[in-house]
Design goal:
GO terms for molecular function: ATP binding; ATP hydrolysis activity. There is one protein chain. By secondary structure, the chain is α/β, with parallel strands linked by helices. The chain has 2 domains: 5-222, Rossmann fold (3-Layer(aba) Sandwich); 227-293, Alpha-L RNA-binding motif (Alpha-Beta Plaits), CATH 3.30.70. It contains 10 helices and 14 strands. It has helices at residues 44-52, 73-78, 95-105, 112-121, 137-149, 167-182, 194-200, 218-225, 272-281, 296-312, and strands at residues 5-13, 19-28, 33-37, 59-64, 67-68, 80-83, 155-159, 186-190, 203-208, 211-217, 227-234, 251-253, 258-264, 286-293. Helix 3 runs parallel beside helix 5 (137-149). It is elongated and about 80 Å long. It starts with a strand and ends with a helix. 31% of the residues are buried.
Length: 314
């Protein structure tokens, strides 16, 4: 079965020569949630814009539901719902007319029951007759989400959908995402809230400098790149790591009161048992042990840092 979204060597070069996308290739499967992470200016929004037909790729090919976004743009666009970063709504229209108009633009038959249910899910039903200009910023964001879902898209793009919004909206948003996932909608999410990607995504993509650094299943990524840290609280502080423990590449923390040992969770042996033996032989007495696992944020920061270091030749 073909992927819902197929991207092959997509490039985007703007007037002046700036290359926002540098040959991105990616398959997004039907019904999955892909979280696309990257710093500001990484190319996330440019990639979404090219897929949604807002911008044209300079070269390469992009298909949605088997439809080329350039030569078959109407068929491709009909499958897509987009919640953009920027709030751009007609201020003097009501919530109800705004959402109903968007459904009509996509050629969908009138379905007031569906729109009523959608507005209720987004806590907008009581505001259906209010003009957009009367709404708070959070309520306007809810209208954007309602517009994106009004024509029942098969692919939903969420470009920083919860940036700067209240906790209640974020909770409503993810509840709707769970329902859409259950109904088979493909969801592509860009976010600065890495904990959200860690909580709901099936796969994680990291983009930096217009290049896709990796795309991997979340659990596999955490296993492959994640490291655990053993923090050993000491009975007496050390001024330096004893020579007898040099092979373990330990670090001192907390003014010498803690030894920090990093190890690969996927390794056959962690080396912890031998470390304890050697510490005892060296006369280093432990007080307590604590372990912590790398988070997705740690992995993301390391990947982006490594990429920027390579680009600058540092």
């Amino acid at each position: 079965m073909a992927p819902m979204v197929e991207i092959r060597d997509a490039r985007k070069v703007y007037d002046g020569g700036f290359e926002a996308l540098k040959g991105v290739t990616l398959d997004i499967e039907d019904g999955e949630i892909l979280a696309l992470l990257g710093p500001n200016g990484a190319g996330k929004t440019t990639l979404i814009s090219c897929i949604c037909g807002i911008a044209l790729p300079s070269s390469g090919a992009i298909r949605v539901g088997g439809n080329d976004v350039v030569t078959e743009y109407r068929a491709a666009r009909d499958l897509i719902g987009l919640v953009p970063q920027e709030v751009n709504l007609e201020p003097f229209e009501t919530v109800w007319s705004t959402v109903r108009f968007t459904r009509g633009v996509f050629g969908k038959r009138r379905d007031d029951a569906l729109l009523e249910d959608l507005l209720k899910q987004l806590s907008l039903w009581d505001k259906r007759n209010a003009k957009i200009k009367e709404l708070s910023g959070g309520m306007k964001r809810r209208v954007l989400i309602a517009k994106a879902l009004s024509h029942e898209p098969k692919v939903l793009f969420l470009d920083e959908p919860t940036a700067g919004v209240d906790v209640e909206l974020r909770r409503d948003m993810w509840r709707i995402v769970d329902g859409l996932r259950a109904s088979g909608v493909t969801i592509i999410l860009t976010t600065h809230y890495i904990e959200e990607a860690e909580a709901i995504a099936d796969r994680i993509g990291v983009i930096s400098g217009g290049q896709l650094l990796l795309v991997e299943e979340k659990a596999a990524l955490m296993t492959r790149l994640g490291r655990k840290e053993l923090r050993i609280d000491l009975q007496e502080p050390l001024g330096a790591v004893p020579d007898a423990l040099a092979e373990f590449d330990l670090a001192l923390a907390d003014d010498g009161h803690t030894l920090v040992y990093s190890y690969d969770t996927g390794a056959e042996r962690t080396g912890i048992a031998r470390l304890m033996t050697e510490m005892n032989a060296a006369g280093v007495i432990l007080k307590d042990l604590r372990t912590s696992q790398n988070t997705l944020e740690d992995i993301f920061v390391n990947l982006v840092h490594d990429d920027s270091t390579e680009e600058t030749g540092a």
